Amino acid sequence: MNFASDTTAPAHPKVIDAIAAANNGTAPSYGSDDVTAQVRSMLSDTFESDDFDFWICASGTASNALALSVMCSSTGAIACHEEAHIERDERGAPEFFSGGAKLRLLPGHGARIDEAAWREALAANNPSFVHETPMETLSLTNLTECGTAYSVETVTHYAALAKSGGLNVHLDGARLANALVSTGATPAEMTWKAGIDVVTLGLTKTGAIGCEIILLFGDMRDRFDALKARAKRSGHMPPKMRYLAAQAQAMLGNNLWLDLAGRANQSAKQLADLLCANDGVQLAYPTEGNEVFAVLPPAIEQKIREAEVKCYPWPGGSYRFVCNWATPQNDLDAIRDLLA
Amino acid sequence: MNFASDTTAPAHPKVIDAIAAANNGTAPSYGSDDVTAQVRSMLSDTFESDDFDFWICASGTASNALALSVMCSSTGAIACHEEAHIERDERGAPEFFSGGAKLRLLPGHGARIDEAAWREALAANNPSFVHETPMETLSLTNLTECGTAYSVETVTHYAALAKSGGLNVHLDGARLANALVSTGATPAEMTWKAGIDVVTLGLTKTGAIGCEIILLFGDMRDRFDALKARAKRSGHMPPKMRYLAAQAQAMLGNNLWLDLAGRANQSAKQLADLLCANDGVQLAYPTEGNEVFAVLPPAIEQKIREAEVKCYPWPGGSYRFVCNWATPQNDLDAIRDLLA
Amino acid sequence: MNFASDTTAPAHPKVIDAIAAANNGTAPSYGSDDVTAQVRSMLSDTFESDDFDFWICASGTASNALALSVMCSSTGAIACHEEAHIERDERGAPEFFSGGAKLRLLPGHGARIDEAAWREALAANNPSFVHETPMETLSLTNLTECGTAYSVETVTHYAALAKSGGLNVHLDGARLANALVSTGATPAEMTWKAGIDVVTLGLTKTGAIGCEIILLFGDMRDRFDALKARAKRSGHMPPKMRYLAAQAQAMLGNNLWLDLAGRANQSAKQLADLLCANDGVQLAYPTEGNEVFAVLPPAIEQKIREAEVKCYPWPGGSYRFVCNWATPQNDLDAIRDLLA
Amino acid sequence: MNFASDTTAPAHPKVIDAIAAANNGTAPSYGSDDVTAQVRSMLSDTFESDDFDFWICASGTASNALALSVMCSSTGAIACHEEAHIERDERGAPEFFSGGAKLRLLPGHGARIDEAAWREALAANNPSFVHETPMETLSLTNLTECGTAYSVETVTHYAALAKSGGLNVHLDGARLANALVSTGATPAEMTWKAGIDVVTLGLTKTGAIGCEIILLFGDMRDRFDALKARAKRSGHMPPKMRYLAAQAQAMLGNNLWLDLAGRANQSAKQLADLLCANDGVQLAYPTEGNEVFAVLPPAIEQKIREAEVKCYPWPGGSYRFVCNWATPQNDLDAIRDLLA
Questions:
Q1: Chain B residues within 8 Å of chain C (Cβ atoms)
Q2: With contacts defined as CB-CB under 8 Å, which chain C residues touch B128?
Q3: B12-255 — its CATH code?
Q4: Domain spanning D12-254: which CATH class is it, in words?
Q5: Band (C340; pLDDT cuts 50, 70, 90)
Q6: Which of A293, B241, C269, D60 has its CB 3.0 to 4.6 Å from that of B31, i.e. a possible disulfide?
Q7: What is the C-alpha to C-alpha distance for residues B205 and C123, in angstroms, rounded to an integer?
Q8: Quick one: closest CA in A to B23, which residue?
Q9: A338: buried, middle or exposed (CB in 10 Å: 19+, 13-18, 0-12)?
Q10: Can you state the percent helix, strand and coil of chain D, rounding each to 5?
């Protein structure tokens, strides 16, 4: 029973198949190959737009940091939730890639930024006061670190506020598919139509080996050359790009990414229900994706520990259980039986 | 006829097979998996030592830069050949990862550092003179950028000189296998036995998808935690490490990497011979690996261009032709026929 | 009536005299001059120790950042109060000089770190968990940004906690003299005897033109060469060092720095008293140095504004009034009359 | 007899006087004071233009690095002579301030860039080839490190070549006054009229304590806010700016800076002549400023050493003798007598 992380799961077999299929003869290096060209076309369909540039990267940490490094200067700040992955779990990657930009941390329940705090931060932001570090970018995460989802309305609203203050907007979409399935929004609705300038679209947690796509929309395309230069010098421009592209091809094809996220979300829903069926179990945050955060009474905590169920103690006293596309029904049944 | 780069080749089928085999059930993230454990054991056999730590990385640029960033401080300099990959082809990656270290460029024919220049630079190096940037590290490349190989004797000699000056020694082994096959040296002889402290062992050009291994020998193991921290924050710590490890497993197993390098070297030898069979063709540098650098008379240059043979004009007036494990005999025959 | 900042004040005449006296014939560059040698001797007396190295720097921001850059690695974090100068007012200097270290922000009333929060942060600190950024340094500020002083006991206690967790301890002493006068502690008691490893001793706000001294105590002296290298490459190694040293000489001579801080503190005490003599005025924080933070009722706020008294609105709703060595009694009298 | 460096000299008394005069009452911080305002007006006269922004900085190293950091991106390269101060003597400051830009080194006799090498580098520069680091800026030094001067014609020509390749042009003017006096050019002719975009105008070596002025001309003024942000976070935005401004005021007033440079140049001319009056002495480079580079026969070398004449052995086998505004005629006479 492994609910430790979505990254303990294997890749979907179609991803492996696509890699094998790409392994055919010589191909131009660095993204000039046919598979990468096809990914562009699939992204165009997925996001209902041609007004974008993109870069494929094996790492989520690097994708976020690369994106932010062309959105925020080295003397600016990036606003984000205080529990955001870019703050907590990336060992200073945004600071490193940007050359020393700061993160401005905002509070809010369930890893969603509180609107009042966001408005207050914007009101106090003064780009012409040289002594402080002005915010230049807002980074939202959807699905959030606490498994909650921002609605399209909230993303749109927060992005509009950002823009009224002269900031651009980044979306950390490591679990974007889970948020899309959960909210029913389309990729376009949740991103550029909502005012998102750059999204890092994660496919790794959803079912790839290691495949994230940075999309620059509209005016941000001006920064594509800078993005490539930074990708190059940080070791995120693989010569044999076709194998990364093959992963994207497999995941985007027939919306496999959304199907797999749907499965993971359903498993999480089922898990949340069967946990809550026990007296004293409470959800710390609503289950709006593939993650369940549950506060467990001591007796249940002990059972979980004794059965060596892999899950992650979370700040605030809950446990995080992560489901993925391959979570076996057997594991869910076993949890149910364990707690019965 | 594609001789543009070894990275235009496909991966060896065993690499794909190993990835597929690794795609089996859940596995711990970040290198705690069984495949990675097996790679450690294989490296131990390959390098005849247990006194090492290692990190697997998908990128050669990042592998070099990560290694150098724990070998040289941000206020120090790295000595290397003026045509080294870390100087010419990595868009400032060493400067970026190290936080601003400088490269000290040394001359020498065929991308091999000239001994007199090396001695002179060492004699002038003064770590206690704060106004200049002292060399802290020597970075050698074997196979060099001009397809020549350093002998074990030269590596040993240059490393000993470095150490007498208080410097540590890095080996960029993007094409190490080619140099080993060419010189007949064992991995141990060419690295730690010769005084190399850290090697970045490239498997990508040899036949993997994207797989390089940084090995820290002996005292350098003290810097392994720093290396991991830097790998993490630069996006080179993939959660699903098993798939990277699988590539290494396939390549190191039964010395596949050396077999493939041997094939590439043989193709290059054959290509060099058939080019030189033509009047007026001269090798710019001896062919001591999988690369041929040939100065072509105008008539031959024209034939090559008209036939759209993919090769790369090189500074100094020659053309670079790169062979790889999968270079088809057909292509070599076609070149022979073309020039006949 | 200018209470905007201690940096609007002129320098003490003895500082100017010392600069003029130093302007005599040739002198060795970069700190090998006689004046700098004399400063070493004066620091030895002032801090009752010979076990230190020091560097003089014209900038407080740079002094803090240089000190921190040799105390914390580029992949580590510096714990500090969320209102600390290094976080709020230095435009990311610590991040820049350290190569991307993070600041870990701690709460506490009056810009003094809350003990429970400090203990909690330490308990959660895990240097071997590579995904998060471990704290490596604690930075205290005394006098704090809110004009309060840490006692020697608290500094000693917090430093001991830091060391039990493997962290070293920095003291931002931009207004150290004010804190020493206020608490009655000696320089030695408040620094190395209390467990401070590195102090940036500010003389600029106290009465110099621009003169701060970084002192590395005990084991930290190992990092002096690294400090000098970083000072050099950041433009903080002036060739004509004697003029910086002359400022230090004037300020440390006969404890002028402490005398001037005593005057500033007294002015602040007088100002606090005469403000509080008015109905509805309340101090936001106790006046333990040369700064008064007062919450003003609207009528008084209006008088202050109309009279163009220079002071600074502070987060939380108070006004900051800063006194300095040269604050004229006339200005204090004028405030009293204005509010009468 | 101290010819070690122009920075061993005292400041001109008028500089001290100006500092003392500025030490009068309160003044706004950070350059909003009256003295700084007057410097703007003097610069306007000196450079015959109002189309500039400027920043005063105590450090030459920082001035160069700050200027370059807004002229060249972190993924670009700065072309300069291989013996330039920014390459040899600033401990990696340009790399540090720019966030990892590279220096592209060009050869040329007497520290003047060779035209053919410059044309060749430009011809090979390809900003759209992501794997190499394209030059974005040309940095010239006048007076050069070998005491030679570029003529206005050459500066104009080199700058025009740079611009035809899309590069902007920086002038390291640490000894600009010496070059102006030597060539007879006006400040305007040697800078913006010649195509220089940004100049770092040095006054420290000429006779100030520590005072350099970065001037951004024309379009480069767009980068003034970025320059200030970078000055702030690197500790080069002194609160008590008036004292830096006072130095500039003294030096620019009545063209004192040019007078002092003229004196230094004349001393150098005299020194060169009296050295060359001895058999076997040869100038390594023509004396076109305040520096003499002389190759000395062994007998003279010995005399110089025994008399403890302070001078600096230079790469290539000559000795560097630097004169300054205060070089005593006595010292020159003493050299003459010593060698007689």
A1: 30, 73-75, 99-100, 128, 130-131, 225-226, 228-230, 232-233, 237
A2: 225
A3: 3.40.640.10
A4: alpha beta
A5: confident
A6: B241
A7: 46
A8: A10
A9: middle
A10: 45, 15, 35
With a cut of 90, say whether residue A223 has pLDDT above it: yes
DSSP A157-213: HHHHHHHHTT-EEEEEETTHHHHHHHHT--HHHHTGGGT-SEEEEE-TTTT-SS-EE
Backbone angles phi, psi at B267, to 5 degrees: -60, -40
What are the tens digits of pLDDT across the range B155-171? 999 999 999 999 999 99
Of D10, D204, D240, the CB nearest to C25: D10
Q: Taking all residues of chain A, what is their mean pLDDT, rounded to a whole number?
A: 97
For D111, the token pair is 């520290």
Residue D140 β-bridge partners? D171
Q: Which of D5, D57, D232 has its CB closest to that of C91?
A: D232
Q: How far is CA B298 from the centre of its chain?
A: 32
In chain A, residues under CATH classification 3.40.640.10 are 11-254
Q: Note whether A102 contacts C89, CB cutoff 8 Å.
A: no
Which chains share 3+ C-beta pairs under 8 angstroms with B?
A, C, D
Q: Which CATH number fits domain A256-339: 3.30.470.30, 3.40.50.1220, 3.40.47.10, 3.90.1150.10?
A: 3.90.1150.10
Of all residues in chain D, the one with the smallest CA distance to C22 is: D10
Substitution target in C14, C16, C26 with the highest count of D β-carbons within 10 Å is C26
Are A229 and D130 in contact by the 8 Å Cβ rule? The answer is yes
Residue D226 pLDDT > 90: yes
Interface touch B90/A11, C-beta < 8 Å: no
Q: What is the pLDDT of residues C52-87, one digit of tens each?
A: 999 999 999 999 999 999 999 999 999 999 999 999
Query: Per-residue confidence at D1, pLDDT binned at 50, 70, 90?
Result: confident
3-class secondary-structure state, position B325: coil
Decide if B75 and C230 are in contact by the 8 Å CB cutoff.
yes
Q: What is the pLDDT of residues B65-89, one digit of tens each?
A: 999 999 999 999 999 999 999 999 9
Say what the alpha-carbon torsion angle B118, B120, B126, B132 is, to the nearest 10 degrees. -90
* Nearest residue to D27 (alpha-carbon basis) of A283, C11, C245: C11
Q: How far is residue D167's CA from residue D220's CA, in Å, rounded to a whole number?
A: 12
CA distances from A130 to A71, A74, A187, D30 (A): 19, 13, 38, 10
Q: What class does CATH assign to A11-254?
A: alpha beta
Where are the CATH 3.40.640.10 domain residues in chain B? 12-255
What is the pLDDT, as a whole number, of residue A190? 98
Residue of B5, B26, B91 lying closest to A229 (CB–CB): B91
Asked whether residue D246 carries a pLDDT value surpassing 90, the answer given is yes
Q: Where in chain D is the domain with CATH 3.90.1150.10?
A: 256-339
Read off the amino acid at residue B337.
D
Chains that touch C (3 or more CB pairs under 8 A): A, B, D
Q: How far is C247 from chain D (nearest CA, A)?
A: 13
**ipTM exceeding 0.85?**
yes
Nearest to B96 among D77, D100, D130 (CB): D100
Which residues on chain C are in Cβ contact (under 8 Å) with B131?
232
Question: Which chain B residue has the Cα nearest residue C29?
Answer: B131
Q: What is the pTM (predicted TM-score) of this model?
A: 0.97
pLDDT (mean) for A90-110: 98
Minimal CA separation from B111 to chain D, in Å: 17
Which residue in chain D has the smallest CA separation from C63?
D235
> Distance of CA C234 to CAs C97, C226, C227, D62, Å?
8, 12, 11, 6
Residue in A130, A133, A227 to test binding to D, most D beta-carbons within 10 Å: A130
The helix/strand count (H/E) of chain C reads as: 14, 11
